[in-house]
Amino acid sequence: MVCDMNFSELLSRVVQDTVGNNPFGDLSGVLSGKQPTFMDGSLLMFLPELIVVGTILALLFVRLLDLDKVISGQSVALLGATVALLVAVVQFLAIKNLDPSTSGVVLPKTMFTGLLVYDAFTVFFKVFLLLFLQLVVYLTQLTGLPDRDDAPDFYTLLFGSTLGMLLMISSNNLLMVFLGIEMTSVPSYAMVGFLKGRRTSSEAAFKYVVYGAGAAGVMLYGISLMAGLLGTASFPEMAARLNLVIGSGPLKLDATLLTLLLSIVMILVGIAFKLSIFPFHFWGPDAFEGAATEVAGFLSVASKGAAFALLIRVLLALVGIDQAPSGVMTPVFFYLGIAISVLAAVTATFGNLAAYSQNNIKRLLAYSTIAHAGYMLMAVGAMMVLLNASKHVPDPAARWELAIRAIEGLLFYLWVYMFMNLGAFAVAALIRNELFSEDITDFGGLWTQAPVLSFTMACCMFSLIGMPPFGGFTGKFMVFSSLFQAGHYHWAMWGVLAVAGINTVFSLFYYVRVLKFMFIAPAKDGARRVRVPAWSAAWFFVLSLAVLVLLTGMWGAAPLSATAHEVAAALFP
Amino acid sequence: MDPQTLQTTGLTLKWLLTIAWLLPLLGFVVELIGGGWVWGRYSKNAAYLSVMCIVTGFVCSFIALMTWGNATEWSALKDHGATHGTSHAEPSRHASGVDAHGAPKPAAEAAHGHDDHAKPVAKDAAHPAHDDHAKPAAAVHVAADHAHGTPHHAAPKVVFTGIFYRLAQFGSLDISLSYYIDSLTLVMFTMVTFIASCIHIFAIGYMSEELTDNYADHQVHTSHGHLHRPGRFHRFFSFLSLFCFSMLGLVLAGNIFQVFIFWELVGVCSYFLIGFYTERKSASNAANKAFIMNRVGDFGFLIGLMIVWTWFGNFQFGDLPAHGQTQPGLFSMVRGNDGQMKLHVPESGQAEVVFKNQDNHIQTKPNGEQRTIPYWLLVAAGLGVFGGCIGKSAQFPLQTWLPDAMEGPTPVSALVHSATMVAAGVYLVGRFYPMFTPEVLLVIAYIGAITLFLAATIAVVATDIKKVLAYSTISQLGYMMLGLGLGGWAAGLFHLITHAFFKSLMFLASGSVIYGCHHVQEMPQMGGLRRKMPLTAYTMLVGVIAIAGLAIPYVTLPGGEPIAFSGYHSKDAIVATALTYMNLNGHHLLFFLPLAGAGITAFYMFRLWFYTFAGEPRDKEVYERAHESPWVMVGPLVVLSFFAAFCAFGGEKGLLFKLLLDSEPASVPGGYVAQTEYLSQGLLNLKLPSHEAIHAKHDRAGTLALIMAFVGAGCAYLVYGVRWVNAAEIKQQFSGIHRFLVNKWGFDEFYDMLFVKPTHVVAGWCSAIDRVIFDGFLHASAKAAVKVSDWDRQFDETIVDGAVNTVGNWTFAIGRSLSVVQTGRMRNYVMFIAVGLLGIFALLIMFFPN
Predict the structure, then answer these.
(1) pLDDT digits over A178-234, tens only?
(2) Listed residues B148, B172, B191: the one ending a domain
(3) Of B649, B710, B326, B366, residue with least CA distance to B501
(4) B807, B822, B838, B846: which to substitute to probe chain A, counting the most A Cβ within 10 Å?
(5) How far is C-alpha B363 from the chain's CA centre?
(6) What is the pLDDT at residue B36?
(7) B826 and A285 in contact by Cβ < 8 A?
(8) CB-based contacts of B496: which residues, under 8 Å, 6+ apart?
(9) Which chain B residue lies closest to A364 (C-alpha atoms)?
(10) How confident is the model at residue B353 (pLDDT cuts 50, 70, 90)?
(11) Mean of the pLDDT values across residues B607-636?
(12) How large is the C-alpha radius of gyration of chain B?
């Protein structure tokens, strides 16, 4: 911050930063990339978030003014989510078509005096989160999770949590990291406990709160250590400061470095809590089992996606993308990348093995979520290794390209994961509505009763296993190929790859076990029958998810990965 | 014809013939798909569809013929003799008179009319003694002149050729679907589609017994009596359609490779159709025999193709535009545009044929050398391709398959074995004619002569009505080959067309007899049938007179042509060619065999007719049950009998002959030209007769043949008509010869001894070796493998499975124990945060790289 200016100047600068010079432009200009409307003024760049906030307010007002007889909370939520998604899509298209030479806009741009950052990565995740939000809102309407009275409360929490995630993905400051995580977490705690009458639900919420508080404490401690050490909390300055603090001499494990490492680990623990990485995953299965299936689905995808975005932002801030290969910390980060990968391997193994003996579908999917977080974390580890392999690849551009591939794989994986995991949770929720059971041993004979549900479940399960031609295979393949690439620079990465491969085999067992019950086992005597009429909304919803899972593995794979590549490349301007 | 008309005519012809060609394919596909499943076994739809396709094809072909005629202003039919003398000396290709020498002229005029005109080509051919008059310069000039002077001269010979679709290209070699349309193509198309139409219609009646779910085949005996099987009406017609498609494709083909493809397709179709009654052992054997014998011939064909590919690098018949210039076709390469091969004898002494291009210039390689092919290789290529024709047209020594092929239903015999498939061989000889050297032609002639005599003699003793016709077919095919081989190009193909009409007529009539007599085929059980089936009998009689070549002596039509049915004209032309050839070259057999054949033909054909239709019935039972066939069968007979009688009306001045003459290769009309540079007489100095020379001999040959025919027919009448001489006695007297003939000259036994038996012996050895050595080894190794796999199984069950199960149990146990960590206790969880953090940090420090 420049300090030699008076208050009014500062004020006008802030106002300009917030409102922008040209807040109103026509849409076609925006889309063609000639008019940088969405890149001008923080408020416009923040428009999807503002719409989410507006929806929250509208929901509260609906409740307050007793308007929910006229317009239901569900409709307001769906409308808000859809509009926000549309705006985010327009923003994404605008960024994609942006022509820096004519518009004069250079990305990334910062928002709100540097606290948030606005670039293709941000907007990509905005689309991801808001699409997922919209799908979840639609799913909850199909399954009727919140009744008419509860709807405004539930959606307020849902939207609030999403708002926190939107902040996470655009964080440009350690402070925003903490704020975003907390803002995501607090509404989630309440959502987990939303089934008020149920003891398990309350217990799960309580555990989640306490665990979250603990993790937040650790993270906050880490953040203060880091900020204190570096004298800044702003991402763009961290890497330079880091090199300054460590000095240029030979790297040795002195007090400064130890403190730094501790602070990094502590910050990562906070994020690992959100990602449910071993050994910070304990809240997961309990919370998922206690929460409603829809909420579990939401937490399993959205908070993971946001946390991965945040993790990448934090790590890239530490490594510093504009630093020459002379970074003193490079070997440390290389090592850190391996450590992350090993942790990922342990997590995946743990998740898969623990899922073996689960009979509750939500608990099973909770462990599956942990395993998949492990797979995805491997991509992050590979990215760190590739980015810091300056000993083997001296050309920074080449390293970036490799790192971009790793991030591309992660992004692809996240999109596929969104569809396949939501599909699995949606089917579980729809079955629960009919069977009143979440026990997979009760799923016998579903194939004959609800073929489309079973088909979707099969698609999702095979995709989760990582079988071609489903999207899960492509995603896993991309992550694994990055791991393989990283293995050229350190053997441990090949070890991780091997473990990941074995894990894929392990996972076959429990995923297919679900299908075994659905397709082969006969229905239990006297069990209720599941009915999902053809061409009903629910039928259509699950079927389109199955199609999406297939599509991302087939024709959709190329465009999606190309987009992911572009977005990942935008992180390295 | 101006280029514009030429182009539109070409396009019209191309599409009309393409439609006629592809419609049967469409029919085949629809019938195949629709037949069994959609229409059911009682439906005649397949027949109607296939008739519709082929009739439409006929209409298209006929329109094409008319279009072609109109576009050329029927110049092919004009009698150029009238304008003959007027502008004769002018060498220009457009001079109307120049072409006259190639055009057919009445024999009388030919005899005297030419000497006063400076007509070197014709003159030299007719009078070799005058060779010394032809100076080299003049020779070249005349030769060029002659080329333009082929019969159609107002416009030079009109050929439409082009490419439908290029499959692949290897260097200069094109593998493509192309077309080559001249009057021969058009006449063949019209003939094939017309006869096929008649046969299709006939078959609706003949095959109607197949319209059932339970067809009883009385010739197949199973343990429960006769074989009963579902009818195959639609299958029959779909094969017929496929067959027509293949045959038409063969005729339309514009390159020799495409001919080969359709050649094989024709072979496959005949295999399907001959073996139509698959359950009959004899039928399936016959199908195999036909197929295998044809493969023997096709082996030669393939060799020919290889030589052509290697040396010419080109399969196209005609000249095609390529890469902005005209790529000369095979015919132009060998014969240029004047029809003469150019010989080059290098110092090594091996004669070579120089490649020319379409304007008669010599082709050179990039290094300036002439492109050539050794003469003997060209002979080999010609013999190879002719080998294929031997197989397909059932010539000696591969003739044995055709009589056996009578196992197919009679319409098949009519279609496949009289008018079309066997015609393919003759057609190909005609089409590929420019590529044949005089030596090859001599071989063709001898093969033809031997075949015609051999088959005719066997036909005399055959008693199965269809077998007689089969041998007669072989014999007539021999005539055609002979005609072609002797240089009577148009005569051979003329006989092909006329024979197609009267032979299909006779096959269908015999089919009608068989149908009417409830599948009795042996003539000794027949007799007197003309009272039961008059229409069949008298239409058959038309065919018999036609094939025997009878005419009314001393009475002529106003044009000077005798009054006779088609067979007379065409056979006459061949015999006349043979006589001329003999006078030029010797080779007396080539004349006397066909002459004798003419007599024998008349004898066995009338024998057949008298046996079947005349006299008293020999088998009362058969006679009582016999009846005339329905109109759907007799109708085609009547139509065909009309054409059998009159299709060659006018003889060599008639429409059909002139149409064919229009396509005659440039080298033929002039016959032998004596120049050193050119090579019409080949290395053996064989002199091919010119049109002029043949005309000169025409009357004499015709008279001789007619006498022979009357003798033959008379004998038949005496023996079988009035039964003046007892046939059985003659048989007794000449029992040796009779047995020899009944055994078909022992060819089957001979081949059996020469090929089949040795094959069996060798096969026996092989199977013994197989059984003892290989099987022994195999069994031993199989036993060993079983032993090993036993051990392997033990290993698998105890060690591998054990390991897998153990690992599985372990992982499951670990999984269980891992979820034990998930205690659900709050304080444990919070503690794990701290423990986890510290643990990770400690590990990180511990493994920190220095």
Answers:
(1) 999 999 999 999 999 888 788 888 888 888 898 899 999 999 999 999 999 988 888
(2) B148
(3) B649
(4) B822
(5) 33
(6) 61
(7) no
(8) B423, B426, B427, B430, B480
(9) B819
(10) confident
(11) 81
(12) 35
3-class secondary structure, B177: strand
pLDDT at A519 over 50: yes
Chain A CB contacts of B829 under 8 Å are: 207, 210-211, 282-283
Q: Quote the CA–CA distance of A162 and A184 in Å, as a whole number.
A: 7
Is the complex ipTM more than 0.85? no
Whether A262 sits inside 8 A of B841 (CB atoms) is: yes
Q: Which residue in A82, A11, A94, A10 sits closest to A45, CA to CA?
A: A94
CA distance A138 to A155: 11
pLDDT for res A407: 93
Q: Is the pLDDT of residue A343 over 90?
A: yes
Angle of helix B489-516 versus helix B631-646 axis, rounded to 10: 150
What whole-number distance in Å separates Cα of residue B83 and Cα of residue B117? 13
CB-neighbour burial class of residue B344 (10 A; exposed 0-12, middle 13-18, buried 19+):
middle
Considering the domain boundaries, does residue B826 fall inside one?
A: yes
* Better-scored residue on pLDDT, B348 or B295: B295
- Helix/strand/coil for A57: helix
Q: In chain B, pLDDT over 90 holds for what percent of residues?
A: 1
Check residue A397 and give its pLDDT: 84
Mean pLDDT of A268-289: 88
DSSP per-residue codes, B16-81: HHHHHHHHHHHHHHHHHHHIIIII-TT--HHHHHHHHHHHHHHHHHHHHHHHHHHHTTTGGGS-GG
Type of residue found at A569: A
pLDDT digits (tens, 9 = 90+) for B232-278: 888 888 888 899 999 999 999 888 888 998 999 988 888 888 888 88
In whole angstroms, give the CA distance from residue B115 to residue A382.
102
Which residue segment(s) compose the domain that B135 sits in? 92-148
**Domain for residue B72, yes or no?**
no
| Number of structural domains chain B divides into | 3
For residue B402, is it within any domain? Answer: no
Phi then psi for residue A341, to 5 deg, are -65, -45
Identify the DSSP state of A91.
H
Find, among B124, B101, B121, B95, the residue nearest to B113 by Cα.
B101
The last residue of a domain, from among B117, B148, B179 = B148
Beta strand segments in B106-172, E: 160-170
| B:801-830 residues touching chain A, CB 8 A cutoff | 811-812, 814-816, 818-819, 821-822, 824, 826, 828-830
Return mean pLDDT, chain A.
86
**What per-residue string of b and e applies to A70-100 under the rule 16 or more CB within 10 Å gives b?**
eebbbebbbebbbbbbebbbbbbbbbbebee
Q: Which residues contact B281 (CB under 8 A, 6 or more apart)?
A: none
What are the tens digits of pLDDT across the range B355-382?
A: 877 777 777 777 777 788 888 888 888 8
Cβ atoms of B384 and B303 within 8 Å: the answer is yes
At A279 the three-state DSSP class reads coil
Residue B257 lies in a domain: no
Smallest Cβ–Cβ distance between A335 and the set B832, B839, B849 belongs to: B849
Compute the distance between CA of residue A330 and CA of residue A105 in angstroms, rounded to an integer: 32
